Amino acid sequence: MRSTDALNLLYKDVINDDNDLLKKENKWVLHCFYVGVASGRIAQKLGIDSDYAKALGYVHDIGRKISHPRHVPEGYKYMIENGYEKEARSCITHSFINNDINLVAGGGPNTPEKRNFIQNLLDKYGEATIYDNIVQLCDLFCLETGFTTIEHRVLDVYRRKGIYDNSKAHFEATLKLKEKFEKKMKCNLYYLFPEIKKEDILSIQDDYNEIENMLKGNIKRR
Ligand SMILES: [Fe+2]
Fold first, then answer.
1. How many Å lie between the centroid of ligand 1 and the Cα of residue 139?
2. Phi, psi at residue 9, to the nearest 5°?
3. pTM of the prediction?
4. Taking burial as the number of CB atoms within 10 A of a residue's CB, which of 26, 27, 144, 163 is the most buried?
5. pLDDT on residue 82
6. What is the CA radius of gyration of the chain?
7. Mean pLDDT by 10 residues, the chain (222 residues)
8. In this predicted structure, what is the pLDDT of residue 109?
9. Ligand 1: distance of its center to the CA of 180 in Å?
């Protein structure tokens, strides 16, 4: 799948003109756009297929066309229905760091049926590829308004979704994933994204401290 095809599929039946991009209900499309751009940029730095990484980033949340809470399985089905079986994995793996069902924000699949569906696919896909990891990482610093820091984005996600018994492991895995890519790229992740607002960079330590405080607080049951 080329990135132009991925963007066309993302926009299909949702974005017909620029005004549609400004609509509140379509903000998730902009988040997908930024995840695609960020994924392509990291892949380019690593000397791997940046256009393919971009495509996977563009489509990762495509299931939100159908349903927000069920966007992971719906995205997978939508990609397959449109003939993109290989790229359908991005809709599943993007939420689970290193393709581990426990390393997810918000507690993860909340019924045995949903958990089985996801686990079976993660088993099928096996160990995370470099492309899986890139989209997982980019999902954790891309907002609908552009790039930010991991700390800013994760704090925002935890505030919205709450803290669960796997959140500490999720946050640690997030930071490890960032470190892994920084070693591979031989540069700080944020150097690659100079568009990140200065105030977000300056509040990294405060955001980190707030996440740590949240992780010590009340934990929701999964
Ligand atoms: Fe996302």
1. 5
2. -70, -40
3. 0.95
4. 163
5. 98
6. 17
7. 98 93 94 98 98 98 94 96 97 97 91 94 97 98 97 95 94 98 97 97 97 84 51
8. 87
9. 20
Ligand 1 center–CA 60 separation, angstroms: 6
How many Å apart are CA 111 and CA 136, to the nearest integer? Answer: 23
How remote is the CA of residue 61 from the centroid of ligand 1, in Å?
Answer: 5
Identify the pLDDT of residue 50. 98
How is the chain split into domains, by residue range?
Answer: 3-216
Predicted confidence at residue 106, as pLDDT, reads 86
- Rounded distance from Cα 134 to ligand 1 centre (Å): 12
Residues 96/104, Cβ–Cβ less than 8 Å: yes
Distance 72 CA to ligand 1 centre (A): 10
Q: What distance in angstroms lies between residue 58's CA and the mean position of ligand 1's atoms? A: 9
- Ligand 1 centroid distance, CA of 209 (Å): 24
* Topology (CATH) of 3-216: Hypothetical protein af1432 (1.10.3210)
